[in-house]
Amino acid sequence: MDRRRPHEAGGRRVRQDQTNLKIVVAITGASGALYAQRLLDNLDPCRHEVHVILSHYAQAVLIQELPNGLRLPEGTHPHGLKSMNVPFVSGSNPFDAMIVIPCTMGTLGRIAHGLSDDVLLRAADVMLKERRKLILVPRESPLNLVHVKNMELLLLAGATIMPANPSFYTRPQTIVQVVDTVVARVLDHLGIPQKLVLRWKEEEEEEEE
């Protein structure tokens, strides 16, 4: 798998698409369960190894926000929160990426300070120590100084903080389309192709060609 950065070719940026990734998707009790659902909808278990963890309170939020429950694509691997008998809690079995979506400020703070007393926190700790991709998608607003300092620690440790701030230049018409503007950016950072959202000026470039 080519891990080099996208390069320039013919004056245009070329995106390197990733295949056969080993990915952990962690869902916490922050509002925004639809972000997690749409990410899972766009991760193909036939192309990637996808594992899912839910925090304790995530279950309650899922019941409130996803009346039909969380849909796990066939081939996805769900795990409990307490058993450490899972492959991604050891640096000897390196995974490519972990996404915490949505991410509570409590979870973000515990990861920032190295707490690892359950599978979710331990997995995040391993991603940081092994210099693997860790993407946190917080939705909290407003932020206090403790939140900001915890984010600073994580940024210094190598994590990516991607707040669930949707964009509107594509004029989304539904809640799902609004959510997809955030999910598309997560997929971009994973290096996974997505057609959820047109890129800025992409339509104009295609017309010029």
The CATH topology is given as Rossmann fold
Task: Write the element-wise H/E pattern from the N-terminal end onward.
Answer: EEEHEHEEHHEHEHH
CATH architecture: 3-Layer(aba) Sandwich
Radius of gyration from CA coordinates: 17 Å
Q: What structural class results from the helix and strand content? A: alpha/beta
> How confident overall, as mean pLDDT?
90
Main CATH class: Alpha Beta
Distance N to C terminus: 31 Å
Helix content: 25-40%
How many β-strand stretches? 8
Widest sheet, order of strands: 5-4-3-6-7-8
Question: How many helical stretches?
Answer: 7
Instruction: Please indicate the count of domains.
Output: 1
Work out the strand percent.
Answer: 15-25%
Q: How would you sum up this structure, described in words?
A:
With 209 residues, this protein is α/β, with parallel strands linked by helices. It has one domain (17-208): Rossmann fold, CATH 3.40.50. The chain is 34% helix and 16% strand. The chain is built from 7 helices and 8 strands; from the N terminus they run E-E-E-H-E-H-E-E-H-H-E-H-E-H-H. The chain has helices at residues 33-41, 58-65, 105-112, 119-129, 145-157, 175-190, 202-208, and strands at residues 8-9, 12-13, 22-27, 49-54, 77-79, 97-103, 133-138, 160-161. The strands form 2 sheets. It has a 6-stranded parallel beta sheet, sandwiched between helices. Helix 2 (58-65) links the parallel strand 4 (49-54) and strand 5 (77-79). Helix 1 (33-41) crosses helix 6 and helix 3 packs across helix 5 (145-157). The radius of gyration is 17 Å and the shape is globular.
